[in-house]
Design a protein that fits this description.
With 454 residues, the chain is of the alpha/beta class. The protein folds into two domains: 6-212, NAD(P)-binding Rossmann-like Domain (Rossmann fold, 3-Layer(aba) Sandwich), CATH 3.40.50; 237-450, NAD(P)-binding Rossmann-like Domain (Rossmann fold, 3-Layer(aba) Sandwich). The chain is 44% helix and 13% strand. It has an eight-stranded mixed β-sheet, sandwiched between helices. The longest helix has 30 residues, at 214-243. Bound molecules: nicotinamide-adenine-dinucleotide. Residues 16-22, 39-42, 45, 91-94, 106, 109-110, 131-132, 164-165, 167, 169, 277-278 line the site of nicotinamide-adenine-dinucleotide.
Length: 454
């Protein structure tokens, strides 16, 4: 990664909300030379940043914050942050509501304080909303608060941009510094120009920039994620079809699909369902939005239904394979590798379903044991190591493609007497060597082709 950009030196930014997305944004801005003032309501988060530590687990974040601690401070005063800086990123949570939309309660509370500080400021200020919001929210709810409380005009006295990020946890720093594109919804040309220049200074890859009004940017954010989840659900359906067709292999079919430029090769793996803090809720929000304007939500709803079915299909498969009184090891509880986040994790859901069916379940994850424990409680056994988890089990399911799991050897799973069943959801192990050591089932492949009994 390139480091300081001279164009960023002596510029001051503030970041309000230093969680999974906000703290990496603050770190990246400081890494490029900005002086950054972060704001959070959680004292532990503020202390971590001021001590040069990452407030959340994200690969590389600890080092980046520590290396740039002379330019990165944190506190609890939004007023101070606005007065110190000329651009502020709002990155607080927007929790999902029952009907599928997103709550603006934290965004509104922050905007009131931001606007009070803008009222006091003589110069122009740019507010950038990076939290995911529902279409219509920026113009309909955020602008009125900022204008009424500040007594100033949006697009004239201060600028506002809606600019959500398309990062994946586990690779946030790389994704933030090398986005496919930057999405900017802008109140006016000046606001968009200033934010575009920030992205050009900070991003290593000089990304393409899509500039538009607020509503189109809000729609684009939900649409990108819903399109990707549609692709994942299609790919998972294809994988299930392959499992039931002699000679079929989802990797071979997907490779061909990916060669078609109308489709592209990303997110075509065909494995388990999607999870995490964005994909499931953005898809549901898209459906809610369509419904609210009288458009059929069935495509997004079907995507969600297919996703929810994946864990049921796996639960059934494990139930068929597990011997009476046998034990299943679920390997992988984070929703993807290189993060400890377990929101909507398929591994956690599988462990939960199997334990509810009275199965003996043990779980292991390199990073997410603590978060998984908050959800699974005493329903499952927590293995202290990968070896421990494998040796005490009859059925093993690899649910997250952590690098550590790709290093499992055939010897580690083979045993005298009854062969173990190994379900490799992401096909990270070699089917031929593992099918000599155990009953290997790669999802998306026909297991009869490998000699594995039904
Ligand atoms: N995490 C992701 O992968 C991701 C990706 C794209 C978009 N987003 C969006 O970004 C937003 C933030 O997500 P996140 O995952 O970083 O959330 P998070 O819960 O990890 O972090 C939010 C932070 O805001 C702080 N906060 C709450 N109220 C505050 C206030 N009044 N003043 C200052 N700080 C306050 C919290 O203490 C917390 O540290 C959400 O809208 C989310 O949808 C997240």
């Amino acid at each position: 990664m390139n480091s300081i950009n001279p164009a960023c030196l002596n510029r001051v930014a503030s970041v309000i909300g230093l969680g999974k997305l906000g703290s990496p944004i603050a770190a990246c801005l400081a890494h490029k030379g900005y002086r950054v003032h972060g704001v959070d309501v959680a004292p532990a988060v503020i202390d971590a940043v001021n001590e040069g530590r990452a407030p959340v687990f994200e690969p590389g974040l600890d080092v980046m914050i520590n290396n740039n601690k002379s330019r990165l401070t944190a506190g609890n005063s939004i007023r101070e942050a606005i007065l110190l800086s000329d651009i502020s990123f709002i990155v607080v949570a927007t929790p999902s509501e029952e009907m599928g939309g997103f709550s603006l309660k934290y965004v509104k509370a922050v905007c009131e304080e931001v606007a009070q500080a803008i009222r006091e400021k003589s110069g122009w200020h740019l507010v950038v909303l990076a939290s995911t919001v529902m279409p219509g929210a920026t113009q309909g709810e955020v602008v009125p608060i900022l204008q009424e409380v500040s007594g100033k005009k949006c697009g004239v006295d201060f600028g506002l941009c809606y600019s959500p990020e398309f990062i994946a946890l586990g690779t946030v720093l790389h994704d933030y510094l090398n986005p496919d594109f930057a999405l900017i919804g802008e109140s006016d040309k000046k606001a968009g120009d200033v934010l575009e220049s920030v992205y050009m200074q900070v991003c290593d890859n000089k990304p393409r920039v899509a500039r538009m009004n607020f509503i189109n940017a809000e729609l684009a954010k939900l649409s990108v994620n819903t399109f990707v989840t549609t692709k994942i659900s299609f790919s998972n359906t294809l994988a299930r079809v392959c499992e039931n067709l002699h000679g079929a292999n989802v990797d071979v079919v997907s490779e061909a699909l990916g060669l078609d430029t109308r489709i592209g090769n990303k997110y075509l793996k065909g494995a388990v369902g999607y999870g995490g803090p964005c994909f499931p809720r953005d898809t549901i929000a898209f459906a809610a939005l369509a419904r609210s304007v009288g458009v059929s939500p069935e495509l997004a709803e079907a995507t969600d239904r297919v996703n929810q079915a994946q864990v049921s299909i796996l639960t059934e498969l494990v139930s068929r394979k597990i011997p009476k009184n046998g034990r299943v090891a679920v390997l992988g509880l984070s929703y993807k590798p290189n993060t400890n986040v377990t929101e909507e994790s398929q591994g956690v859901m599988l462990a939960q379903r199997l334990s509810e069916l009275g199965r003996k379940v043990s779980v292991f994850d390199p990073k997410a044991m603590e978060n998984a424990q908050k959800k699974l409680g005493g329903k499952v056994a927590y293995s202290s190591s990968l070896e421990d988890s494998i040796s005490s089990s009859d059925v093993i399911v690899i649910m997250t493609p952590w690098e550590q799991f790709a290093q499992i050897s055939p010897d580690a799973v083979s045993r005298e007497g009854n062969r173990r069943v190994l379900i490799d959801a992401w096909r990270i192990l070699d089917p031929h060597s593992f099918s000599k050591a155990c009953d290997y089932i790669g999802l998306g492949m026909n297991s009869r082709d490998l000699g594995c009994p039904d």
